[in-house]
């Protein structure tokens, strides 16, 4: 049993690592310069350099990946929405409430059916 659990944990860690690489690479492959998006089309070179420095966009890609993983691990921080200049979680609070309501609405009939089948 212990061997099975160790194997499953190892597979889970490798899977999470591969998924994180896919997500990070996919975000970085989006065309365009994030600094240009945040600064706008009229931004000068000094403004773009400041944005790149502030968000670490001028760092090597492996360092950006490690920083991104660190934010996810330490703060459960999904990141910053560059176009909206806000945290990812700011615009989705209402969605979490709606999701919770949907889960409750779906869970009640399921629980009711499950308990009725156990009683019979």
What does this structure look like?
The chain has a two-stranded antiparallel sheet. The protein is built from five helices and two strands; from the N terminus they run H-H-H-H-E-E-H. The chain starts with a helix and ends with a helix. It is mainly α. The radius of gyration is 22 Å and the shape is elongated.
Summarize the SSE layout with pairings.
Layout: H1 2-28, H2 34-39, H3 45-55, H4 61-75, E1 80-81, E2 86-87, H5 93-119
Antiparallel strand pairs: 1-2
In short:
By secondary structure, the chain is mainly α. The chain is 72% helix and 3% strand.
Spatial strand arrangement across the major sheet? 1-2
Query: Which parts are unreliable, with pLDDT below 50 for 5 consecutive residues or more?
Result: none
End-to-end separation in angstroms reads 34 Å
Number of alpha- plus pi-helical segments: 5
The SS-based structural class is mainly alpha
Question: Beta-sheet strand percentage?
Answer: under 5%
**How many individual β-strands?**
2
What overall form do the CA principal axes indicate?
A: elongated
Number of domains: 2
Q: Spell out the helices and strands N to C.
A: HHHHEEH
Q: Which value, in Å, is the CA radius of gyration?
A: 22 Å
**Average of per-residue pLDDT values:** 76
Percent of residues in helices comes to over 70%
Profile the largest sheet.
2 strands, antiparallel
């Amino acid at each position: 049993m212990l061997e099975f659990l160790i194997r499953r944990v190892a597979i889970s860690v490798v899977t999470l690592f591969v998924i994180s690489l896919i997500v990070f690479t996919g975000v970085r492959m989006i065309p365009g310069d994030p600094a240009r998006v945040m600064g706008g089309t009229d931004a000068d070179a000094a403004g773009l350099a400041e944005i790149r420095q502030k968000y670490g966009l001028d760092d090597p890609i492996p360092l950006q990946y490690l920083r991104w993983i660190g934010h996810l691990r330490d703060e459960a921080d999904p990141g910053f929405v560059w176009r909206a200049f806000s945290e990812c979680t700011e615009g989705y609070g209402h969605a979490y409430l709606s999701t919770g309501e949907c889960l409750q609405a779906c869970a009640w009939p399921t629980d009711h059916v499950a308990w009725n089948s156990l009683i019979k």
